Every structure is written in structure tokens, then in C-alpha cells.
Amino acid sequence: MANSKYEYVKSFEVEDEIMFPNLIVVRVGGRHFQRFSEVHEFEKPNDEKALKLMSLCATSVLQEYPDIVFSFGFSDEYSFVFKQTTKFYQRRASKVVSIMVSFFTSVYVTKWKEFFPDKKLKYPPSFHARPIVCASLEVLQEYLAWRQQHCHITNQHNTCLWELVKSGKTEKEALDILKGTHKQERNELLFQQFGINYRTLPQMFRQGSCVLKTEVEGIVKYSENGTPIKRMRKDPTTVHSKNIAGRSFWNEHQSLLKE
Ligand code: ATP
Ligand code: ATP
Ligand code: MG
Ligand code: MG
Ligand code: MG
């Protein structure tokens, strides 16, 4: 209703455009997933199916929104990076964040039974999300380094925790043992008590997962005489990389942000 006497109320909407040339990142994370993972009996410390469901949700986000070019995630979270020139919803933070978190959540719920055919979803899960404004590629790299470090530290901690629990300790006792330990001490605990070399655990657990768009040649259709007609298209692929924030990784993938 344009020009009605109520029109002025529109000016009360929060203005939250994220200005170019800042890079827009949105982090989506499971809300109360500690409880959700217990109620749904996730394998501890890493339920592979749950991680793959998260990764599928991230891939669906990249397929649905072409302006999102890169994603990194682990556990119950994924961060999404937009290309620098995006004009998605006039770069309005609340619009962008709400669209992504609701899409992510509905894919999670819709695809649940494909990953857990024998587990009923006992209640509707929810996710929270927030925008992160990165003023430069360097800031983006630091942000990603921070998330990947978090992935590493929590995974190493949880691996120790659940090995101790499996060996007969209560969760409280295990937590007390781990309190104040350093990275190196935890590696030694795993090796000496359980014969586990941390570095040989799956990359997906230790380093998280990246979803990014890479060019692949795909068949778009067949001509009348049956010859396949091919074209380059960008498809999201999942990779695990030791150092997603490292220069070499971004030298290889920097063009992503520049489209
Ligand atoms: P918040 O609502 O603040 O995000 P939270 O309960 O979700 O709180 P987080 O710090 O986000 O807590 O941690 C996620 C929790 O979900 C951890 O306890 C983690 O063990 C569990 N979790 C998530 N994914 C998996 C998985 N694939 N396998 C096992 N546990 C998982
Ligand atoms: P935006 O993405 O900005 O929200 P929109 O396309 O969703 O745009 P709205 O102004 O939110 O547009 O209007 C909602 C649209 O959905 C209208 O076109 C309306 O006709 C349709 N719609 C919503 N609920 C119903 C309903 N119960 N029955 C029929 N149509 C509906
Ligand atoms: Mg969470
Ligand atoms: Mg989390
Ligand atoms: Mg609408």
C-alpha cells in the first residue's frame, strides 16, 4: 500500500546494508546441538553421517545462491563467503542472514531421513546465524584460520574425552583429566594410552570441510545425432585442506571472490 498514512512506519526498519567492498560472511550454527546430538544419539566424538548431512546442506546453499562462492565448516557450523561484488538483497544483513539460515535448516530437515533412515527426527532442530564483515582478504583469511583452529582444538579435545569415556572414565573424570592440558600433551595422551596417532585420523574430522565452486565440463544436452554437447559449468565440490586460510590456498582460489 504505497502512500498510505502508515507508510512512514517503513522508516523504522533497521538499515543494515553491508557496504562494498567489504566481504560478507555468514556463519550458520546448530542451536543447542549438544542436546540435539545426544537426543539423536550421534556417534561421539564425530558422527560421520551428521557431518555429511551438514556438508550436503552447505552444498545446497552454494547451488541455490550463485553469489556464495566458498564455505567452510565442521561440527554444527558452516561459514559462507559471498563474492565481493554481490548485490544479493542489496547486501542487507538481516535479509541475507535470514534467507540463508532458513534455507539451510529446511534442507537439514528435508534430507535428514536420507542420512538417518532408521532415526526419527524427534523435534525440529534450529540454527542461528550471524553476519561477519571482512574488510579485506587478509581479514577473511584470519577469520577462516580462527574457525579452523577452533575445529582442530575442539576435535582433539573431544577425541581425548571420548577415548577416556570408552576406557571406563565418567565424563566428569575425563574432563578433569583434560583440564588445562596443552595440544602436545593431548597428542601424547592419545598415543600413549590409546595408541592413536592423531595425525592419521580422517581429515574431515581434523580439518573440517570446504565447499567451493570449481569448473567442470558437463553434458548439457545431446544433439539430434546423439553427440553430447558439453559446456563448462561451476559445481560445488567438497575438499579438505590443511590450511584454508593459507596464502597458497587463496592464491589458487582468489579468483572466486572476484567474479
Ligand atoms: P549453541 O546453541 O550455543 O550453538 P551448542 O549446544 O550447539 O550451543 P556448540 O558449541 O555449537 O554447542 O557445539 C556443538 C555440539 O554438537 C557439540 O557438543 C558437538 O559435540 C555436537 N555435535 C555437532 N555435530 C556433531 C557430530 N557430527 N558428531 C557428534 N557430535 C556433534
Ligand atoms: P519477499 O521475498 O520480499 O518476501 P514475496 O514474493 O514473498 O517477497 P510478499 O510481499 O511477502 O512477497 O507476499 C507474499 C506472497 O505470497 C503474495 O504474493 C501472496 O499472494 C502469496 N501468499 C502468501 N500466503 C498466501 C496464502 N495463504 N494464500 C495465497 N497466497 C499467499
Ligand atoms: Mg551450536
Ligand atoms: Mg558450534
Ligand atoms: Mg514474502
TrEMBL record:
Residues of the Thg1 C-terminal domain: 139-221
Keywords assigned: GTP-binding, Magnesium, Metal-binding, Nucleotide-binding, Nucleotidyltransferase, Transferase, tRNA processing
Domain tRNAHis guanylyltransferase catalytic intervals: 6-133
Keyword Metal-binding: yes
Cofactor: Mg(2+)
EC number: 2.7.7.79
The protein's enzyme class: transferase
Protein family according to the UniProt entry: Belongs to the tRNA(His) guanylyltransferase family.
The protein, known as: tRNA(His) guanylyltransferase
Organism of provenance: Salix suchowensis
Source organism phylogeny: Eukaryota, Viridiplantae, Streptophyta, Embryophyta, Tracheophyta
Residues of the full protein shown: 1 to 259 of 515
